[in-house]
Amino acid sequence: MNIQLSIGMASNPRTWALHDGTVSPDGIDLIPSVVHPSELFWRQLRFADFDISEMSFSSLIMALAGGDDRWVGLPIFTTRRFFHTGVLVRRDAGIESPADLKGKRVGVPEYQQTAALWTRGVLQHEFGVEPKDMEFWMERTPDHSHAGAVGFKAPEGVTIHQIPMEKDIGSMMLSGELEATLLYIVDPNLIDRSTADLWHHPDIKNLFPDLVAEGTRYYEKTGIIHINHGMIMKRKIAEQHPWAVLNVLKAFEKANKLAAAQRMEHVEYYIDAGLLPPSSRGVLASNLVQHGVAANRKTLETAAQYSYEQGLTPRLIGLEEVFAESTMDQ
C-alpha cells in the first residue's frame, strides 16, 4: 500500500533527485513543492502546510520546548556551512575584528534562525562577544516570522528592535543605521524584504577578510561544520505509518549519494581538462553532507547547547526528544 504525502523543500542539488522523481521512498508517493526556506518554515510552524518538510533546527527545538509536538525530526541535513563567516560590516564602523562588534547595531533577519544561533555561538565561544554585547535589529515582522509562530520573546538582557516596514537590513546598512549584519538574505519570498547587493557595495566588507582561512581554523579546532536545516514529518503520520520514517531517510541518503557522484563527474572533467590539479581529487571527493544522528551528534548537541545558553529554549533539549526513535542509531 502506498501513501501520498506532500513535501516542501528548497532547491538543493542534494534533493533534486527527489524533486524530479529519480528517487522516491518505498511505499510513498511524494508531491513536492519548491519553497524558499524562510517562507517554508513560517508556513509549517503557523499552518502545517506540508506532511514532510525542511525545518530550521533552532525553530524545531524551540517549538518542542514550548510544547508543540506536531512534528518529529528526521536526521536529514540539507545545508552546511560556516555561518559566522557571513557577517558583513560597514567599512567606516571601526570593526576590524569580532571583538569590535561590542556595542554595535547589528541586523538579523530572524533572531532565532539557526544561522544566527550558530553565529552568536561562535562569536561568544571563540571571540568572547556575547549576544547582550550587541544591539540587534530584526527584519521579519511578528506576523511573518518563525518568532511570531512560536511566541518568541527577547531573552533576558538582550536588546532586539523591530526594523520598520519601510526599511530593511540592506537599506539600514547602506544608510549607516546598522553597522553590521549577522547574515543577509535577498532571495524573493513572502518573509524577507531586503534587495540591496551588500556583497559588492564599496561601503561594505566581510568581518573575516579570508573566509576560507577562518573556516579552516574553526573546523580544525572544533571539528564542526554548522547544520541549519533538517527535515520533519507530521507526528501523526509517523505514528500511523512508522515504516515511512526510515523509508524517507533511505531515499534522501540515495539522493545524496547520486548528487555526490554527479559532483565527482564534474571534478574529473575539470581535472582531465587541466582546470583542476589531480591533487584536488581527494579533497573534493569527501562527502561533507552526511545524514543521520550518529554522524552529526556533536554538531547537533552543540546547536542545542547554544540554544539553551542564548535563552531560546528554557532547558537543554536532548536529541532523543527531537528525532524519531528509529533513526537514533542511524
3D structure, described in words:
- This protein has helices at 16-19, 37-47, 57-65, 114-127, 146-150, 169-175, 211-222, 235-240, 243-272, 280-285, 297-309, 319-322, and strands at 3-9, 28-34, 52-56, 71-80, 88-90, 105-108, 135-138, 159-162, 180-181, 204-206, 227-234.
- The chain has 330 residues and is an alpha/beta fold.
- The protein folds into two domains: 3-81 and 225-327, Periplasmic binding protein-like II (D-Maltodextrin-Binding Protein, domain 2), CATH 3.40.190; 83-222, D-Maltodextrin-Binding Protein, domain 2.
- The chain has a six-stranded mixed β-sheet, with helices on one face. Strands 2-1-3-11-4 form a five-stranded mixed β-sheet, sandwiched between helices.
- Strand 1, helix 1 and strand 2 form a beta-alpha-beta unit.
- It is globular.
- The two termini are 25 Å apart.
- The model has no long low-confidence stretch (mean pLDDT 93).
